[in-house]
Design brief:
Blueprint lengths: L2 H8 L5 H11 L25 H12 L6 E5 L5 H10 L2 E6 L2 H13 L6 E5 L12 E7 L8 H11 E14 L5 H11 L7 H10 L3 E7 L1 H24 L7 H15 L3 E9 L6
Parallel strand pairs: 1-2, 1-4, 2-3, 4-5
Antiparallel strand pairs: 5-7, 6-7
The chain binds S-adenosylmethionine.
The site of S-adenosylmethionine (SAM) has 24 residues, from helix 1, helix 4 and strand 2.
Length: 283
């Protein structure tokens, strides 16, 4: 269980309230009860991973998504990727999400764009997913296992809920070299990082859960500029808040993000993209 992650995401600078406030500024009728928007209206705001919609498409390709498939998004956040995949690929998506404020925010955003019948985000921990055995065609996840202390258990759960032939595709932070004790403490304090695997470490965990590994990609070079841009966005939000005389947000978060961006630029931390299949019929 990751108490730190719940606190971190309950107070995260991007929330469903902030997204709705931004949309309402552009179009005041959004605030009216029963208002609806096209799904595309949310995509610039609700993707809490690196690489935006293209990153979703890359995982959809690795998982072989087809209309009608049952997809599970581990650590679904506000449901941004889940809504995009349902809309773009015609799949049904169940998100498993630990933080209650994210679960309720996801429900609110899905209703706002009329996708509540094809996207549901349920409260739960991916190390004990509240979903039946062999019920999913694909399990996806983005930038979230860094918060999960027992990554082996998350892999076993993905394996359990997939049907034989079902696919796993995810991205996560990776450590190309072990973090110093000081950096680990800063990352834990500022961004609820429970621990990181190397690319090799992930290969081992995926195989140990029973999967047949299909691909491992080092995403570090692609992430470095994306992270710099996200840091600039968070900096601008802090400056805006300071200028408005409102709280500028958590300074541990800011300090850890600055350090994270430096560590990725130096190639000491980075990103990995993984794809695997559950052996059996129906691939
Ligand atoms: C960086 S956000 C990613 C959200 C989403 N994947 C996206 O791309 O927009 C990570 C999410 O993982 C969730 N989380 C952390 N630990 C979890 C766990 N053990 N089980 C389920 N969700 C978890 C957090 O609450 C947070 O919403």
């Amino acid at each position: 269980m990751s108490e730190g992650a719940i606190d971190f995401y309950t107070g995260h600078p991007i929330s469903s309230e902030i997204i709705i406030e931004r949309l309402t500024k552009a179009e005041p009728s959004v605030a009216r009860p029963g208002a609806t928007l096209p799904p595309e209206a949310l995509f610039p705001h609700d993707q809490d991973h690196y690489g935006g919609l293209e990153a979703n498409d890359a995982l959809a390709g690795l998982a072989g998504l087809k209309p009608g498939m049952e997809v599970v998004d581990f650590c679904a956040g506000l449901g941004g990727p889940a809504r995009y995949l349902a809309h773009r690929y015609g799949v049904r998506v169940t998100g498993v999400e630990l933080t209650p404020a994210r679960v309720s925010g996801a429900g609110r955003l899905s209703r706002l764009v009329g996708l509540q019948d094809r996207v549901r985000v349920v409260e739960g921990d991916v190390t004990a997913a509240p979903l039946p055995d062999a019920s999913a065609d694909a399990v996806l996840s983005q930038e979230a296992f860094l918060h999960v202390p027992d990554k082996a258990a998350a892999m076993r759960e993905a394996f359990r809920i997939l049907r034989p032939g079902g696919r796993l595709a995810f991205t996560d932070w990776v450590a190309h070299e072990p973090m110093s004790a000081e950096d680990s403490a800063l990352m834990r304090r500022g961004m609820a990082v429970a621990g990181l695997e190397s690319l090799e470490g992930w290969r081992g965990l995926i195989a140990a859960a029973g999967f047949s590994l299909e691909s491992v990609e080092d995403r570090t070079a692609d992430w470095a500029p994306i992270l710099k841009a996200r840091l600039a966005m968070f900096r601008a939000m802090r400056e805006e808040a300071a200028a408005a005389g409102t709280p500028t947000g958590d300074s541990d978060f800011h300090e850890s993000y600055v350090r994270f961006v430096d560590l990725v630029a130096a190639g000491r931390l980075g990103g990995g993209r993984f794809a695997a299949v559950k052996p059996g019929q129906g691939g």
